[in-house]
Amino acid sequence: MTRTYVVTGADTGIGALTAELLADQGARVIRCGVAEGADVRADLGTADGRSALVGEVERLAPAGIDGLALVAGIAAPTEATVRVNYFGTLAVLNGLRPLLYRSGAPRAVVVSSASSLSAGDADVVAACLRDDEAAATAMARRAIDRGRGAVLYRSTKIALNRWVRRAAPDWARSGIPLNAVAPGIVDTESARSTMLGTPAQAKLMAEALPQPLGFPGPADAVAEALAWTLSPANTFMTGQILYVDGGADATLRGDTPYADGVRYGPLAMTKMIYWSLVAKLQARKPTG
C-alpha cells in the first residue's frame, strides 16, 4: 500500500530533498511551503496559516497520513523565527495528529539543528516550552533590541529538542514514534547565502561546529535520515535527537551526555524494589 507523507518546508533545501526522496521511494508526498508549486501554501508564522495548512491536508488526505516531516524553518534574527520554527511546527504537528492515528504505522519527525549544542536565550526557550507565543515573541524582541537576534534560531531548536523529549512517551503510547533530526552545516542554497556567504563566515561556522566528516556536509544525508525515521522500518526508536552533523556533537560534547547514569526518583525506586522481590519469589516457585 502506498504511504502518504506530509513535508513542510518542501520548497527548497532539505525539505525539497526529503520530499523528492520519499516520492522516489514510491510514496505520495503532500508538499507544503510558501512558494508557487507547493501542494499546500501556508505561512506557519500565523495562526491562520497554520489552520489553513491543517485544513488543506485534511482535505487532500481524508483517509489519514502515514508520516509527517516538519522541515519548515527560518534563521533570520526576527520574531518570525520563533513563530515559524517553534509554534508553527508544533501547531502543524498537533493539528495533524488525528490524521496520523488513521495510519497503521504512523511516524513523525521534526528538524532541529546542531546549533542547539550552543546555549540559547533561556527566556525565549522557557516561554516556548510554556506554550506562550506572546511571551516568546516579546522575549525575542528584547533579544533583538540587545543585539542578540542571532541567538533566536538556536533557541527555537533547543526548545524543540526539549519538547520532543517530553512529548515522545505520550506519542509512543499512541503508537506514533516521534523524533528530531539535527543537521550540521550542510550544502544548501540557504546555507551558501547566509552562514557560508563569505570565507570569513565559513571559517567562523567551521570553528563553531567542527565537522570531521566534512564541511559543509551533504544535504542528502539529512534527507535520508528523515526518510528513515518516517519509514515502517523505524519500529523502536522514539524521543531521539539524531545529530546528522558530521561529528560536531561528538567533537564538542564528547561523552558528557552519557557520563552519569539515570537517577531514579523515590517512587520509581520503590516500584523497582517491589517488583525485584516479586521476581525473586517467582523464580523460587517450582515449575511443572
Keywords:
single chain, 288 residues, alpha/beta, Rossmann fold, seven-stranded parallel beta sheet, 12 helices, globular, oxidoreductase activity
> What level of helicity do the residues show?
40-55%
Q: Cα-atom Rg, whole angstroms?
A: 21 Å
The strands making up the biggest β-sheet line up spatially as 3-2-1-4-5-6-7
Distance between the termini: 46 Å
CATH H-level superfamily title:
NAD(P)-binding Rossmann-like Domain
Strand element count: 7
> Which outline best applies?
globular
How confident overall, as mean pLDDT? 95
CATH topology: Rossmann fold
Could you say how many structural domains there are in total? Answer: 1
Largest sheet: 7 strands, parallel
User: Runs with pLDDT <50, length 5+?
Assistant: none
Question: Strand portion, in percent?
Answer: 5-15%
The topology string of helices and strands comes to EHEEHEHHEHHHEHHHEHH
Q: Supply the CATH class.
A: Alpha Beta
